[in-house]
Amino acid sequence: MEDGFATLSKIVGERESAIVTRWRQLLVEAGGSGRIKDAEVEKQCQDFLASFVAGLGGGATSATDPAFAKARELLAEVSRSRANQGFTPTETATFVFSLKEPLFEQVRASYPDDAARVASIGWEMTQILDQLGLYTMEVYQRSREDVVRRQQDEIAELSTPVVKLWEGILALPLIGTLDSARTQVVMENLLQAIVDQSADLAIIDITGVPTVDTLVAQHLLKTIAAARLMGADCIVSGIRPQIAQTMVHLGVELDVVSKATLADALALAFQRTGRTVVRKAIAKG
Amino acid sequence: MDRIPILKLGRALLVSIQVDIHDRLAKALEEDLSERIVATGARGVMIDISGLEIVDSFMGRMLDNIAAVSRLLDADTVVVGMRPAVAITLVELGLSLTGVKTALNVERGMALIGSGQYEEIDGDDALEGGDERNDG
């Protein structure tokens, strides 16, 4: 094993520039590299090859060996940046796998008459590059998951605003389905806003909620109960006709004051807080 | 033994809970409060829990008990100053304190108890009776 790696390390060390040239050519043929500058690809190739040689020379026997730490770090960096730039999994994995061909060519050129040796070195090389390739895919997958998670957080944050309609009157326009996690966020935001603005009325507008089943209704009731404990009353508005019918068919009961539109709810809120809206004649100038 | 102070504010009683409540303290508070409601003829009881950071089902039941006792003695109970985290916990525990009125702070709580009095002025001579009790 170690003998094979040492030989491989020597061959790669001696013919580095030839390998890099061929490798880059293969990467260009595989396509997808147009999104990264040539100079950057070349630097990535050179850096990885150097750390790969260092790893081989360090007596490593598998890709998880500490001697390959530097190489893995570089691969993770490459993989992460490609995941963020929207490369496909194939394009990302090609970075490592396309190194096989130039390496094998060089090994064959070094021992033109010793087929058995070429085969054994080639096998070891294939194994180690496969492991590194799999590692690349793992990092790629993890980076994509991070992106998805971040986007989910952002959506949750964006879709639960609490707006002040008037002194002491808050509105909570809900958009999208209410699950347990979102209910928690909505509740926290609403209660904090009630404290911050000393509000005594909150209008929960569910125009943007696609369906109201028993679970969603339960979440709504929880939010309303929590707001009541803080001393604020809630009005539900924006129940669409189909949703109202579905709720009745499902036997969902929302035991709260509800109004058809946000405007009606605001009018009720004004009435409850002793305000009246007066229309004045506007002088035309 | 520790006792929770009960302050008289006009025709309301103010109880400010600033420490962790345990069984004996809750029992003592219930007894003290019911005696004071009768003695002062209070029409409202305000329980300020702005100092409480942790609640459990025991705490929720205690508030419900106090409210029930006060109602029997003809006084409204208003829980004021509940923190958002406490409200969420109580709801998750399934305790939404349906028998209790709530207000954001002591000021609003006073207004709530006060508004009940105005109704009585409009209604009948209950206020006079109350005043006599206060003087005596």
Explain what the structure shows.
The complex is a heterodimer of chains A (285) and B (136). With 285 residues, chain A is an alpha/beta fold. Chain A folds into 2 domains: 2-154, Globin-like (Orthogonal Bundle); 163-272, STAS domain (Transcription Regulator spoIIAA), CATH 3.30.750.24. In chain A, 64% of the residues lie in helices and 9% in strands. Chain A is built from 11 helices and 5 strands; from the N terminus they run αααααααββαβαβαβα. In chain A, strands 1-2-3-4-5 form a 5-stranded mixed sheet. In chain A, α10 links the parallel β4 and β5 (257-259). In chain A, α3 runs antiparallel to α4 and α4 (69-84) crosses α7 (115-158). Chain B is of the alpha/beta class and 136 residues long. Chain B has one domain (6-135): STAS domain (Transcription Regulator spoIIAA), CATH 3.30.750. Chain B has a 5-stranded mixed sheet, with helices on both faces. Mean pLDDT of chain B is 82; it is low at 118-136.
Spans of chain B of at least 5 consecutive residues whose pLDDT stays below 50 are 118-136
Q: What is the H/E order of chain B?
A: EEHEHEHEHH
Rg for CA atoms of chain A: 32 Å
How far apart, in Å, are the first and last alpha carbons of chain B?
Answer: 30 Å
At the first level of CATH, what is the class of chain B?
A: Alpha Beta
Number of strands of chain A: 5
Low-confidence blocks of residues of chain A: none
Distance between the termini of chain A: 95 Å
CATH topology of chain B: Transcription Regulator spoIIAA
Q: How many DSSP H or I helices of chain B?
A: 5
Mean pLDDT over the residues of chain A: 86
Structural class of chain A comes to alpha/beta
Work out the largest interface and the residue count of each chain. A-B, 19 and 19 residues
Major β-sheet strand ordering of chain B: 1-2-3-4-5
**Structural domain tally of chain B:** 1
Biggest β-sheet strands, sense, barrel of chain B: 5 strands, mixed
Specify Rg of chain B, calculated over alpha carbons: 15 Å
Tally of strands of chain B: 5
* Structural class by helix and strand composition of chain B: alpha/beta
The major β-sheet of chain A equals: 5 strands, mixed
CATH class of the largest domain in chain A, anyone?
Mainly Alpha
